[in-house]
Amino acid sequence: MTERFITFEGPEGAGKTTIINKLQQELENRSIPAIFTREPGGIEISEKIRSIILDKEHTTMDGRTEALLYAAARRQHLVEKVIPSLKEGKYVICDRFIDSSLAYQGYAREIGLEDIFSINSFAVDGYMPDTTFYLDLDVEAGLERINQNKDREVNRLDLETLSFHRKVREGYLILQEKFPERIIKIDANRTVSEVFKDVLYHLQRKYKL
Ligand SMILES: Nc1ncnc2c1ncn2[C@@H]1O[C@H](COP(=O)(O)OP(=O)(O)OP(=O)(O)O)[C@@H](O)[C@H]1O
Ligand SMILES: Cc1cn([C@H]2C[C@H](O)[C@@H](COP(=O)(O)O)O2)c(=O)[nH]c1=O
Protein backbone atom coordinates (compact mmCIF):
# COMPACT_ATOMS: atom_id res chain seq x y z
CA MET A 1 0.00 0.00 0.00
CA THR A 2 2.71 2.49 0.97
CA GLU A 3 5.78 3.39 -1.05
CA ARG A 4 9.30 4.29 -0.01
CA PHE A 5 8.75 3.12 3.53
CA ILE A 6 11.91 1.26 4.53
CA THR A 7 12.58 -0.31 7.90
CA PHE A 8 15.61 -1.83 9.56
CA GLU A 9 15.30 -4.72 11.99
CA GLY A 10 17.54 -7.01 13.95
CA PRO A 11 18.59 -8.19 17.39
CA GLU A 12 20.53 -5.97 19.79
CA GLY A 13 23.79 -4.63 18.36
CA ALA A 14 23.13 -5.82 14.81
CA GLY A 15 24.33 -2.47 13.44
CA LYS A 16 21.04 -0.82 12.41
CA THR A 17 21.95 2.66 13.70
CA THR A 18 25.37 2.50 12.06
CA ILE A 19 23.93 1.54 8.65
CA ILE A 20 21.06 4.06 8.89
CA ASN A 21 23.58 6.85 9.60
CA LYS A 22 25.57 5.87 6.52
CA LEU A 23 22.40 5.75 4.45
CA GLN A 24 21.45 9.22 5.65
CA GLN A 25 24.80 10.55 4.47
CA GLU A 26 24.42 8.76 1.12
CA LEU A 27 20.90 10.08 0.45
CA GLU A 28 21.92 13.59 1.49
CA ASN A 29 24.86 13.45 -0.94
CA ARG A 30 22.44 12.49 -3.69
CA SER A 31 19.89 15.15 -2.63
CA ILE A 32 17.20 12.50 -2.20
CA PRO A 33 14.42 13.72 0.16
CA ALA A 34 14.18 11.41 3.14
CA ILE A 35 13.50 11.35 6.85
CA PHE A 36 15.26 9.12 9.36
CA THR A 37 13.43 8.07 12.46
CA ARG A 38 13.13 5.32 15.03
CA GLU A 39 10.75 3.22 17.07
CA PRO A 40 9.73 3.36 19.76
CA GLY A 41 10.10 7.13 19.56
CA GLY A 42 10.70 9.57 16.74
CA ILE A 43 8.28 12.20 18.11
CA GLU A 44 7.65 13.61 21.58
CA ILE A 45 4.71 11.42 22.66
CA SER A 46 6.32 8.22 21.40
CA GLU A 47 9.68 9.10 22.98
CA LYS A 48 7.83 9.47 26.30
CA ILE A 49 6.25 6.05 25.81
CA ARG A 50 9.74 4.73 24.95
CA SER A 51 11.16 5.91 28.24
CA ILE A 52 8.33 4.18 30.14
CA ILE A 53 8.82 0.89 28.27
CA LEU A 54 12.61 0.80 28.47
CA ASP A 55 13.05 2.06 32.05
CA LYS A 56 15.17 -0.54 33.88
CA GLU A 57 13.16 0.09 37.06
CA HIS A 58 9.95 -1.13 35.43
CA THR A 59 10.67 -4.78 36.14
CA THR A 60 7.01 -5.62 36.82
CA MET A 61 5.77 -4.55 33.40
CA ASP A 62 3.40 -7.15 32.02
CA GLY A 63 4.18 -8.53 28.56
CA ARG A 64 0.83 -7.48 27.09
CA THR A 65 1.16 -4.00 28.59
CA GLU A 66 4.55 -3.79 26.94
CA ALA A 67 3.08 -4.93 23.60
CA LEU A 68 0.26 -2.38 23.81
CA LEU A 69 2.67 0.44 24.66
CA TYR A 70 4.85 -0.37 21.64
CA ALA A 71 1.72 -0.40 19.46
CA ALA A 72 0.52 2.92 20.92
CA ALA A 73 3.92 4.56 20.32
CA ARG A 74 3.84 3.15 16.78
CA ARG A 75 0.39 4.57 16.05
CA GLN A 76 1.25 8.10 17.14
CA HIS A 77 4.59 8.10 15.32
CA LEU A 78 2.94 6.80 12.17
CA VAL A 79 0.19 9.42 12.17
CA GLU A 80 2.35 12.35 13.22
CA LYS A 81 5.52 11.69 11.27
CA VAL A 82 5.62 8.69 8.94
CA ILE A 83 2.39 9.17 6.96
CA PRO A 84 2.85 12.95 6.41
CA SER A 85 6.42 12.37 5.16
CA LEU A 86 5.32 9.60 2.79
CA LYS A 87 2.57 11.88 1.49
CA GLU A 88 5.21 14.53 0.78
CA GLY A 89 6.98 11.95 -1.39
CA LYS A 90 9.90 11.44 0.97
CA TYR A 91 11.65 8.20 1.74
CA VAL A 92 10.97 7.19 5.32
CA ILE A 93 13.77 5.18 6.89
CA CYS A 94 12.78 3.78 10.25
CA ASP A 95 14.88 1.94 12.82
CA ARG A 96 12.44 -0.86 13.84
CA PHE A 97 8.69 -1.20 13.20
CA ILE A 98 6.03 -3.91 13.46
CA ASP A 99 8.49 -6.81 12.95
CA SER A 100 10.17 -5.88 16.25
CA SER A 101 6.85 -6.39 18.03
CA LEU A 102 6.33 -9.70 16.25
CA ALA A 103 9.85 -10.97 17.06
CA TYR A 104 10.17 -9.60 20.62
CA GLN A 105 6.64 -9.65 22.03
CA GLY A 106 5.02 -12.18 19.71
CA TYR A 107 7.75 -14.80 19.54
CA ALA A 108 10.30 -14.23 22.31
CA ARG A 109 7.74 -13.20 24.97
CA GLU A 110 5.47 -15.97 23.66
CA ILE A 111 2.38 -13.77 23.43
CA GLY A 112 1.87 -15.19 19.96
CA LEU A 113 2.42 -13.80 16.46
CA GLU A 114 -1.30 -13.69 15.70
CA ASP A 115 -2.29 -11.64 18.74
CA ILE A 116 0.58 -9.23 18.21
CA PHE A 117 -0.29 -8.92 14.55
CA SER A 118 -3.89 -8.26 15.48
CA ILE A 119 -3.23 -5.37 17.91
CA ASN A 120 -0.72 -3.92 15.48
CA SER A 121 -3.12 -4.14 12.55
CA PHE A 122 -5.35 -1.80 14.52
CA ALA A 123 -2.36 0.52 15.12
CA VAL A 124 -0.95 0.62 11.59
CA ASP A 125 -4.26 0.49 9.73
CA GLY A 126 -2.72 -0.93 6.55
CA TYR A 127 0.55 1.01 6.56
CA MET A 128 3.33 -1.49 6.14
CA PRO A 129 6.93 -1.02 5.03
CA ASP A 130 7.55 -2.02 1.45
CA THR A 131 11.13 -3.03 2.23
CA THR A 132 12.55 -4.30 5.48
CA PHE A 133 16.23 -5.02 5.97
CA TYR A 134 16.75 -7.66 8.60
CA LEU A 135 20.34 -7.46 9.83
CA ASP A 136 21.13 -10.96 10.96
CA LEU A 137 23.81 -11.52 13.55
CA ASP A 138 24.75 -14.12 16.09
CA VAL A 139 23.14 -12.98 19.37
CA GLU A 140 26.31 -13.23 21.47
CA ALA A 141 28.21 -11.13 18.91
CA GLY A 142 25.52 -8.45 19.00
CA LEU A 143 25.46 -8.31 22.80
CA GLU A 144 29.26 -8.17 22.84
CA ARG A 145 29.13 -5.19 20.45
CA ILE A 146 26.73 -3.26 22.66
CA ASN A 147 28.72 -4.09 25.80
CA GLN A 148 31.79 -2.62 24.13
CA ASN A 149 29.90 0.57 23.32
CA LYS A 150 30.22 2.55 26.56
CA ASP A 151 28.13 5.47 25.19
CA ARG A 152 25.02 3.30 24.83
CA GLU A 153 22.63 3.31 27.79
CA VAL A 154 21.58 -0.19 28.88
CA ASN A 155 17.77 -0.56 28.78
CA ARG A 156 15.23 -3.00 30.27
CA LEU A 157 15.09 -5.15 27.14
CA ASP A 158 18.89 -5.43 26.96
CA LEU A 159 18.78 -7.05 30.39
CA GLU A 160 16.65 -9.97 29.20
CA THR A 161 18.19 -13.45 29.29
CA LEU A 162 20.39 -14.84 26.56
CA SER A 163 17.67 -17.35 25.70
CA PHE A 164 15.18 -14.48 25.22
CA HIS A 165 17.59 -12.78 22.79
CA ARG A 166 18.12 -16.08 20.97
CA LYS A 167 14.37 -16.39 20.57
CA VAL A 168 14.19 -12.84 19.17
CA ARG A 169 16.60 -13.91 16.43
CA GLU A 170 14.63 -17.12 15.80
CA GLY A 171 11.47 -15.01 15.54
CA TYR A 172 13.06 -12.75 12.93
CA LEU A 173 14.22 -15.74 10.90
CA ILE A 174 10.67 -17.11 10.91
CA LEU A 175 9.30 -13.74 9.78
CA GLN A 176 11.87 -13.51 6.99
CA GLU A 177 10.80 -16.94 5.71
CA LYS A 178 7.17 -15.92 5.94
CA PHE A 179 7.57 -12.60 4.10
CA PRO A 180 10.53 -13.09 1.73
CA GLU A 181 9.22 -10.50 -0.73
CA ARG A 182 9.38 -7.73 1.86
CA ILE A 183 12.09 -8.78 4.30
CA ILE A 184 15.64 -8.88 2.96
CA LYS A 185 18.07 -10.77 5.15
CA ILE A 186 21.50 -9.16 5.36
CA ASP A 187 24.50 -10.90 6.89
CA ALA A 188 25.52 -8.36 9.56
CA ASN A 189 28.54 -10.36 10.65
CA ARG A 190 30.75 -8.46 8.22
CA THR A 191 32.46 -5.09 8.13
CA VAL A 192 30.30 -1.97 8.16
CA SER A 193 31.26 -1.17 4.57
CA GLU A 194 30.37 -4.68 3.34
CA VAL A 195 26.98 -4.55 5.07
CA PHE A 196 26.28 -1.07 3.73
CA LYS A 197 27.26 -2.04 0.18
CA ASP A 198 24.77 -4.89 0.33
CA VAL A 199 21.96 -2.62 1.59
CA LEU A 200 22.69 -0.04 -1.09
CA TYR A 201 22.71 -2.71 -3.79
CA HIS A 202 19.16 -3.78 -2.85
CA LEU A 203 17.93 -0.19 -2.60
CA GLN A 204 19.36 0.73 -5.99
CA ARG A 205 17.80 -2.34 -7.56
CA LYS A 206 14.37 -1.69 -6.09
CA TYR A 207 14.10 2.11 -6.09
CA LYS A 208 16.52 2.99 -8.91
CA LEU A 209 18.10 5.58 -6.60
N1 LIG B 1 29.60 -4.38 11.08
C1 LIG B 1 30.07 -4.06 12.28
N2 LIG B 1 31.18 -4.62 12.75
C2 LIG B 1 31.63 -4.31 14.00
N3 LIG B 1 31.04 -3.45 14.86
C3 LIG B 1 29.91 -2.86 14.43
C4 LIG B 1 29.36 -3.13 13.14
N4 LIG B 1 28.22 -2.41 13.01
C5 LIG B 1 28.06 -1.73 14.16
N5 LIG B 1 29.08 -1.99 15.01
C6 LIG B 1 29.24 -1.47 16.37
O1 LIG B 1 28.36 -2.22 17.20
C7 LIG B 1 27.70 -1.37 18.15
C8 LIG B 1 26.18 -1.46 17.92
O2 LIG B 1 25.90 -0.89 16.63
P1 LIG B 1 24.57 -0.10 16.36
O3 LIG B 1 24.31 0.86 17.45
O4 LIG B 1 24.64 0.41 14.98
O5 LIG B 1 23.54 -1.31 16.44
P2 LIG B 1 21.96 -1.32 16.61
O6 LIG B 1 21.46 -2.44 15.80
O7 LIG B 1 21.42 0.03 16.31
O8 LIG B 1 21.82 -1.65 18.15
P3 LIG B 1 20.56 -1.54 19.15
O9 LIG B 1 19.30 -1.60 18.35
O10 LIG B 1 20.74 -2.69 20.04
O11 LIG B 1 20.73 -0.22 19.85
C9 LIG B 1 28.27 0.04 17.93
O12 LIG B 1 29.32 0.23 18.85
C10 LIG B 1 28.83 -0.01 16.52
O13 LIG B 1 29.92 0.85 16.32
C1 LIG C 1 9.84 -1.22 18.25
C2 LIG C 1 10.05 -2.31 19.26
C3 LIG C 1 11.24 -2.40 19.96
N1 LIG C 1 11.40 -3.38 20.86
C4 LIG C 1 12.66 -3.42 21.64
C5 LIG C 1 13.89 -3.70 20.85
C6 LIG C 1 14.99 -3.06 21.66
O1 LIG C 1 15.34 -3.94 22.69
C7 LIG C 1 14.27 -1.85 22.26
C8 LIG C 1 14.53 -0.58 21.49
O2 LIG C 1 15.85 -0.20 21.67
P1 LIG C 1 16.78 0.26 20.43
O3 LIG C 1 18.13 0.44 21.05
O4 LIG C 1 16.21 1.55 19.93
O5 LIG C 1 16.79 -0.79 19.39
O6 LIG C 1 12.88 -2.15 22.22
C9 LIG C 1 10.42 -4.31 21.10
O7 LIG C 1 10.58 -5.19 21.95
N2 LIG C 1 9.26 -4.22 20.41
C10 LIG C 1 9.03 -3.26 19.50
O8 LIG C 1 7.93 -3.22 18.87
Question: How would you describe this protein?
Answer:
The chain is globular. It starts with a strand and ends with a helix. It has helices spanning 16-29, 44-54, 63-87, 98-108, 113-124, 139-148, 162-178, 192-207; strands at residues 5-9, 34-38, 91-95, 131-136, 183-187. The chain has a single domain, classed as P-loop containing nucleotide triphosphate hydrolases (Rossmann fold), CATH 3.40.50. The chain has 209 residues and is of the alpha/beta class. The model has no long low-confidence stretch (mean pLDDT 97). Bound molecules: adenosine-5'-triphosphate and the ligand Cc1cn([C@H]2C[C@H](O)[C@@H](COP(=O)(O)O)O2)c(=O)[nH]c1=O. Adenosine-5'-triphosphate is lined by residues 10, 12-18, 145-146, 149, 191-192, 195.
Count up the domains: 1
Q: Supply the helix-strand structural class.
A: alpha/beta
CATH class: Alpha Beta
- The average pLDDT is 97
Our count of helices gives 8
**Strand order in space, largest sheet:** 2-3-1-4-5
Q: Which sheet architecture does the biggest sheet show?
A: 5 strands, parallel
Function: Phosphorylation of dTMP to form dTDP in both de novo and salvage pathways of dTTP synthesis.
GO cellular component, one term: cytosol
Protein name: Thymidylate kinase
GO molecular function: ATP binding; dTMP kinase activity
TL;DR of this structure?
Belongs to the thymidylate kinase family. The protein is an alpha/beta fold and 209 residues long. 56% of the residues lie in helices and 12% in strands.
Helices and strands, with pairings:
Layout: E1 5-9, H1 16-29, E2 34-38, H2 44-54, H3 63-87, E3 91-95, H4 98-108, H5 113-124, E4 131-136, H6 139-148, H7 162-178, E5 183-187, H8 192-207
Parallel strand pairs: 1-3, 1-4, 2-3, 4-5
The structure holds adenosine-5'-triphosphate and ligand LXEULUCI.
